[in-house]
Amino acid sequence: MTIKIKISKKKLCILPVIMLLLFLLMGCATANYGAIRPSSEVNELFESHEVLDDHNYYYSGSAAIPNAIIGIHENFTLKSDLWKPVDLTQDQLKKWILLMTDKRGFSIRIYGYHILDPQGEIIGVWYSPYDRTVVKMVDDQHVVVHTPTVRPEERDKMFRFFPSL
């Protein structure tokens, strides 16, 4: 038994046009999103406790042991109530990095990333054990950077070692 489906040529011609329009709309919907890109340069910058004069710094999480530290170039303004601004010094950065990499005797790896705008231009730096976030340009000078998203398997591992968290 065979089933025959009858589709007119007119409908077949419309299908590629609809697919093209959907593709273009999806491209427009993601046009304002940037990203973070791993960078050994940013990693070295943080691990040498260098604070960039032309960046404004913020942290996420506890002031005692942040989940992430970001620096946004002074040409841009961070739009977020979740990141806390900090007048970062080399001493504070050194203390944070020591605490972030040696939480209660359990050493974790922290990574440096460049924060990129939708065109791939560098607009800031990110330092965190977490590599999941959303970067969105509101306009040419305002950026939204979400605080780190913790993968479930990372969260479970953390709670196994730190049940009081």
Give a structural overview.
The chain has 4 helices and 11 strands, in the order H-E-H-E-E-E-E-H-E-E-E-E-E-E-H. It is an alpha+beta fold. The chain has one domain (32-161). The chain is elongated and about 75 Å long. Residues 158-162 have low confidence and may be disordered.
Total number of helices: 4
* Neighbour order of strands in the largest sheet: 1-8-9-3-2-5
Structural class: alpha+beta
In N-to-C order, the SSE pattern is HEHEEEEHEEEEEEH
> Which stretches are low in confidence, meaning pLDDT under 50 for 5 or more residues running?
158-162
Q: How many domains make up the coordinates?
A: 1
- Rounded to an integer in angstroms, the radius of gyration calculated over CA atoms is 22 Å
- N/C terminus separation: 62 Å
> Percent of residues in helical segments?
25-40%
Largest sheet entry: 6 strands, antiparallel
- The proportion of residues in beta strands is 25-35%
Based on Cα principal axes, name the global outline: elongated
Give average pLDDT, whole number.
83
The tally of beta strands, per DSSP, is 11
